[in-house]
Specification:
Elements lengths: L1 H20 L1 H36 L7 E4 L10 H5 L6 H10 L3 E8 L3 E6 L2 E10 L4 H4 L4 E4 L4 H6 L3 E4 L1 H8 L8 E4 L2 E9 L13 E4 L1 H5 L3 H4 L4 E7 L5 H16 L10 E4 H44 L1 H9 L4 H37 L9 H27 L3 H8 L1
């Protein structure tokens, strides 16, 4: 056992000396592995961070929440021309659903897409997401109000001229003044601010911090029922105790009857569940990971070829030394370990430098990007270290094996 430890130690020492004596070559070899490991771990960490931030933003939502709309939130087999001819989801559809579908905890009607200008005295903000939506969204999205209140069901049904705004929007419009009771202009009409939402931070899609919520019926009073080409949807939160599959079947059947669809006719609407959206996001994340592996793998492959090439050159340069070592009694395993250690040290150091660069970038991003947390997990660091070690072993094994098999006499003669 002591003999093997001594062989390992001496082989390691020879490898370090060889790397120190060829600094430029060592640096260039390190660079190839560093770029490869950096590329892979940076991509994986970025995708993991994106996945984590999206999941955290969706964590507060009920995954069984359903969006009934003419649009599909994910891939569908229905041709585009058919989907374009589906009727818009109107407020009357929402009224039918909330009165006739059992086991609904809460429902709401939303009109998507409204980038508007909002004004308060001399302050004007453009491209603000103003969402016309009925009162039920307060429960469905579990919104929290830190100042004032959310509009009531009565205000929602009657289309009262009121607005609830996000924290960033409140700060940009009113600075440190109390927004409650202030009158702003949206859609060219006056609205009274009755509530300010808590600060949510970055969100998947538009953050509530930069949004405004108004009763859908307020917009319907002057915008062609509130649609004007903008898509609407019925948002449904089933009761927790309900079987979601059975609930979806009942919803589809009753809504088909309401739309007057015959048994042989296809649905002219989509029932979108948030759980389906989460699965769709998971598929996208998996695809991004795969693409990242393929692209970054080429960089790592180049680094591995670089190490193998350098090791073959190193064997060629030290043929005479190998012959002398073997003539003095060095075993094949000593020569093998010597070159294998050299390749592995190159790869491991290059990998560690790559990981260090990713770590530095993560610190910089977390310091400058407030609403997005860049995560470098231990699993990814361990993966980077393991990959660099594996690349070193694979790249060095053939040159090391060829060096260990050299005939001492021929090696000395060749090197002279």
């Amino acid at each position: 056992m002591l003999v093997y430890l001594r062989v390992f130690k001496e082989s390691f020492s020879f490898a370090l000396n060889a790397l120190r004596n060829n600094k430029l070559r060592t640096f260039l070899s390190l660079l190839g592995v560093t770029v490869g490991i950096f590329s892979i771990i940076a991509v994986l960490a970025a995708v993991d961070s994106l996945d984590k931030n999206i999941k955290e933003n969706l964590s507060g939502l009920d995954k069984n929440t359903i969006y009934l709309s003419k649009y599909s939130f994910g891939p569908t087999d229905v041709p585009r021309w058919k989907r374009d001819n589906f009727p818009q989801t109107e407020y009357d559809d929402y009224e039918f659903v909330r009165r006739n579908i059992p086991d609904i905890e809460e429902s709401a009607y939303v009109i998507f897409g409204g980038s508007e200008t909002i004004r308060y005295q001399a302050e004007t903000l453009t491209n603000i997401n103003i969402t016309p939506i009925s009162h039920g969204i307060y429960t469905i999205d579990d919104l929290k109000v830190v100042q004032g209140r959310f509009y009531s069901e009565l205000e929602s049904d009657t289309g009262a001229p009121v607005i609830v705004i996000g924290s960033n929007l409140a700060e940009n419009l009113f600075d440190k003044a109390n927004p409650i009771g202030k009158v702003v202009r949206v859609y060219g009409r006056k609205l009274t601010v009755i509530g300010v939402l808590k600060k949510y931070g970055a969100n998947f899609g538009d953050s509530p911090d930069d949004k405004g919520f108004v009763p859908a019926n307020f917009v319907r009073q002057f915008r062609n029922g509130g649609v004007d080409g903008l898509p609407g949807a019925v948002v449904i939160k089933p009761k927790k105790s309900v079987d979601i599959g059975a609930f979806e079947s009942v919803l589809k059947q009753k809504f088909r009857n309401y739309r007057g669809l015959k048994a042989d006719e296809e649905d002219d609407f989509f029932v979108n569940k948030l759980s389906g959206l989460v699965s769709f996001i998971d598929a996208i994340i998996a695809g991004l990971n795969t693409v990242g592996w393929v692209i970054s793998g080429f960089s790592l492959l180049v680094g591995g070829f670089g190490i193998a090439n350098i090791m073959f050159v190193s064997v060629k340069e030290r043929t005479n030394l190998i012959g002398i070592q073997k003539s003095l009694g060095a075993k094949n395993r000593f020569i093998l370990f010597q070159f294998l250690f050299e390749a592995t040290i190159l790869a491991v150091v290059g990998g560690l430098v790559g990981l260090f660069l990713v770590w530095i970038i993560s610190l910089i991003m977390n310091g400058f990007v407030e609403d997005f947390k860049f995560v470098l997990s231990f699993a990814n660091m361990f993966l980077g270290f393991g990959l660099s070690t594996l690349i070193g072993l694979i790249s060095g094994v053939i040159p090391a094996f060829s060096a260990s098999k050299l005939d001492p006499v021929e090696a000395i003669r060749t090197g002279m």
